[in-house]
Amino acid sequence: MLLAKLVETWAAVAATPARRGKVDLLAARLRELAPGERLAGVAFLTGVLRQRQIGVGWAAVRAMPPPAAAATLSVAGVDSAFAEIGATAGAGSQAHRRDLLMGLFGAATEPEQRFLSQLLVGELRQGAAAGVMADSVARAADVPLAAIRRALLFGGDLRAVAVAALDDGAAGLAGFRLRVGRPLAPMLAGTAPDVATALVSAGPAAVDTKLDGVRIQVHRSGADVAVFTRSLDEITARVPEVVDAALGIDASEFVLDGEAIALRVDGRPQPFQVTSSRLGSRTDIAVLRDRTPLTPVFFDLLHLDGADLVDEPLRSRLDALTGAAAAAFVVDRVVAPGADDAAAFVARSLAAGHEGVVVKSLDSPYAAGRRGGGWLKVKPSHTLDLVVLAAEWGHGRRRGYLSNLHLGAREVTGGFVMLGKTFKGLTDEMLGWQTERLQELAVDRGEWVVTVRPELVVEVAFDGVQASTRYPGGVALRFARVKGYRNDKSPADADTIDAVRALHGGP
Question: Which of 355, 346, 208 is nearest to 272 (CA)?
C-alpha cells in the first residue's frame, strides 16, 4: 500500500468529529493492508513506530528537503527505512542516520512529510486513540469487540492484536491468554477530586497508599523471574532486589502488580527522580543496589499457581495476595473503610510523604490496559503563580501558535529563574490569545523560540518538585499544566524560587 493512502486516512480521521465516522474510515483502510504491512500500518495509524524509537527527535525533522512531486513511498518501504535508521550505530552514525532520514523525506510528498515528521516526534494526533482503533480493528476483521478487548488484556500490544485479528480472525485472538513471562497491559486509575467522591463512585472499596515509584509487573515460574515496566519493557537485570523478593514468595508461579520505589532510611520515599534514575541505570547494578536500594511494593495478584485471577473481584485477589506475599512487600491499605477512616488514612499517607491514595472497588475485575471507575486516584495538586519568560512555536495541530511556555519563578533579589516548560492545559482560546500577546511582548524572535518581557503571570498546577541540573534554579516542576492566566497579578506577585525549593524540601 502507498503511504499516501494512510496519510489520506489520517487527515480524514482528524477532520471527522464523530467516533463512528473515525471507525468507518480506519476500518476501511485496515482491510486494504496487505498481510506483511499490517503491523507497520496499524502502528502508523495509532501514531507510533513499529520500532518504538529510532533515535530521531524533533531537531532532526525541522529542516526538510523539498518534497517530492508524486507519491511513491510504500508503507513497507517506510517501515524498512525506519528500521535501517534505528539500526545505525558506531562512528559517523549520526551523520549517516541524518542522510537516511533526509533521503526518506526527499522521496515524500508535502502531506507525507507532515505525517512522517509528526509520527517521528510523537505528535500524530488525529483522534484515533486506542479505543477507537480497537473498534476499527473489530469492524475490519469482523470479530466481536469483546474479543479484541480480551486479547488486549492478555497481549498488551494493540498492534499485535490487530495483526492477529486481521490475519486469522477470532482464532487468532484466541491465542492471547495470560502467560506467565509475557507482560499484560496494566490496569490504570481514573481520577477523583477527593476520597469521599471516590468512595461513593466505587462502592465497597479498598484504599491504597499511592506510591511515587515505578510501576512493575513481576512474573515468576519456578526459579525464573521476569520484571517488566508499565510500558512492558523488561528490566529484570536492573532490579535484583525485586527478583530476590519474588523468589522469597511461597509459590511456584505467579504474576504480581506493584511498584518499585527507593526509600529513605526512615521509610519515607525518595524523590521520584531518584527511583527513576536507579531503574534507568544498566551498569554497576551491585553498587547502585547498595547505594540506592529499591523496595518492591505489591498491590495486586493476577495469577497464582496455575489459576488466572484477572476476572476475579478485587476482594478475592487481595485475599490471595496477602496469603502469598510477606506483609513488608504489600502496599499499605485499608479495606472497606467508612468516610472518617478513609480520610484519616489519606492524611496518614500524605504525612508519610506519599502522593495520595487510590480507591479501588472491591467488586472490580482487573481491567488490563484500561482506565475507568474501578480504580480512582486521589492526590492533592499544587499550584504556583509563575511568569512566562519565552514560548516556542507549536507544531502539528498547534502549528502557527506560540505553545510551549517557559516558566520562571521570581528571585527576591530581582529577575526570574526558569523552572521548566509546559504546553499542557492550554485551550484553543488561550493559544490564540497568548500567541498575539506574547508577540507584543517579544524582545527576541528566534526561529523556534520567542523570548518575551516577563510581564504575564500564569497559574500552573503540578504534581511535585524535583531536583534538576538542567535549569539554573536547581529544581523543576513535575507534570506542570496551565490552569489560567492571572491578569489580576503582576510579576512582583509571582511565587519565588525559594518557595519552590521549599516544596522540594531543600535549598
Answer: 355
C-alpha cell at 451: 523570548
How far, in Å, CA of 318 to CA of 362, rounded? Answer: 9
Contact of 441 with 455, CB cutoff 8 Å: yes
CA quadruple 230, 236, 241, 247: dihedral positive or negative? positive
Helix (H, G, I), strand (E, B) or coil at 120: helix
Tell me the C-alpha distance between 487 and 455, whole Å: 10
Query: Does the structure show a pLDDT above 80 at 27?
Result: yes
* Catalytic positions, written as ranges: 210
Is residue 507 scored above 50 in pLDDT?
no
Buried b (16+ CB within 10 A) or exposed e, 404-414: bbbbbbbeeee
53 or 297, greater pLDDT: 297
Q: Are 100 and 88 in contact (CB under 8 A)?
A: yes
Give CA–CA dist 257/217, Å, rounded. 5
Cα–Cα distances in angstroms (integers) from residue 116 to residues 54, 274, 374, in the given order: 13, 35, 37
Q: Rounded to whole angstroms, how far apart are CA atoms 120 and 64?
A: 13
Nearest to 340 by CA among 201, 207, 221: 207
State the virtual CA torsion across 387, 390, 395, 401 in degrees, nearest 10. Answer: 70
Q: What is the mean pLDDT of the chain?
A: 90
pLDDT tens digits, 377-425: 998 777 888 999 999 999 888 889 999 999 999 987 788 999 989 999 8
Percent of the chain with pLDDT over 90: 58
Q: Strand pairing partners for 262?
A: 294
User: Span 316-334, mean pLDDT?
Assistant: 95
